[in-house]
Write a structure and sequence with these properties.
It contains eight helices and 21 strands. With 350 residues, it is of the alpha/beta class. The longest helix is centred in the last third of the chain and has 15 residues, at 242-256.
């Protein structure tokens, strides 16, 4: 059974919850097994995520129940286009992240310095599920920051959500370990995973992470029966060369399957990349054309007006779901079957 304790600092008290998936070392350090960084954390130290702390040889999460972002979102905002279209998802996050993305749009909470008092409203898992049900949501999304770093909290919420008939969704950078994924997979129904680029150099420089580990993690999700959709933010001069775009497309087609949706998203300059131009519509069209040539059936353009957002039947071309922004324009609930030719459309529809 996990333990909780209060750590009292000059700035106030911080509730800490004993972490899952770690190993104590003979020198008093601990080895975290939650994400693929597998941090060795000395006594008194924290992991790369800054929110997991070694206290006298025991690893604690500093963010359990500390919800810093809470929102009712269209599920299309995740983005997930093949999961319960038109529904809303109760979305939560704590501070912290195990990546250091130079263009992070949520850097204020993702790159939070945990040396300060941990912010957020203390919400027990039961309260999260109650609020989700009360708001009419059909799912709970663990998002905005990386859900892996508040794993213990997400797991407790997800278990209760399943009992209440809600789906659970990760919006993730794809760095969870196989052993951690095994624990939460029975309660996890879908994930949108960032595939940020397709060279090790890009991943190391821009995100301080490994491409090879992300690719393996993505296949781990799929092997466990979790529905996945892939998102790539196309950044001019960084990951928009044809070689990287083709690499991403062929990884999806060859390793995951042509039914896995790919969301190609327009970049806008922000955080530590203020000097980069926004992505052109022509570049997104080029990426979509590469995907079509490789046989990907569902390719969507995001963050751009008049981008490709509709879901069409791969057999007859019938428009089965029409979208405008985060709104579904097609009336009624989608059954997952093309009304023209009866082709089954891949996804989670019920």
């Amino acid at each position: 059974m996990s333990r909780k304790l209060f750590l009292y600092t000059e700035s106030g008290e911080t509730l800490m919850h004993e972490a899952l998936i770690y190993q104590r070392q003979s020198d008093g350090s601990v080895k975290c097994g939650l994400c693929r960084h597998r941090c060795i954390i000395a006594r008194g130290g924290s992991g790369r995520c800054r929110v997991r702390k070694n206290v006298d040889g025991t690893l604690y999460s500093l963010v359990y129940g500390r919800v810093v972002a809470e929102q009712i979102d269209p599920i299309e905002k995740k983005p997930l286009f093949h999961v319960l279209p038109g529904s809303t998802s109760y979305s939560i996050a704590t501070v912290g992240c195990n990546f250091r993305c130079l263009y992070c749009q949520n850097h204020v909470i993702a790159q939070f310095d945990a040396a300060d008092r941990i912010p957020g409203e203390l919400l027990e898992p039961e309260e999260v599920v109650r609020r989700a049900l009360q708001s009419g949501c059909r799912s709970i999304s663990y998002t905005y920051t990386e859900p892996t770093i508040f794993f213990e909290y997400a797991l407790d919420v997800a278990r209760l959500a399943c009992q209440a008939g809600l789906k659970n969704i990760f919006v993730s950078n794809g760095y969870i370990t196989p052993e951690a994924l095994d624990v939460i997979a029975p309660f996890l129904h879908a994930a949108n995973i960032d595939l940020k680029g397709f060279t090790e150099e890009f991943y190391q420089r821009v995100a301080d992470a490994s491409l090879a580990e992300v690719l393996e993690c993505i296949t781990d999700y799929q092997r466990r029966g979790i529905w996945i959709e892939i998102t790539t933010l196309v950044i001019p001069g960084e990951n928009d060369d044809r070689e990287q775009l083709e690499g991403i497309v062929h990884f999806i087609a060859d390793k995951l399957g042509v039914d896995v949706p790919w969301h190609i998203s327009r970049f806008f300059p922000q955080y530590k990349m203020p000097g980069h131009p926004a992505t052109s519509s022509a570049k997104l069209s080029e990426a979509a054309a590469i995907a079509a040539k490789a046989g990907l059936r569902y390719v969507y353009e995001g963050n751009i007006a008049a981008g490709q957002e509709d879901t069409c039947c791969p057999t007859c071309g019938n428009q089965v779901l029409q979208r405008q922004g985060f709104r579904i324009l097609t009336p009624g609930l989608f059954s997952g079957i093309c009304g023209t030719c009866s082709t089954e459309i891949a996804g989670v529809w019920t």
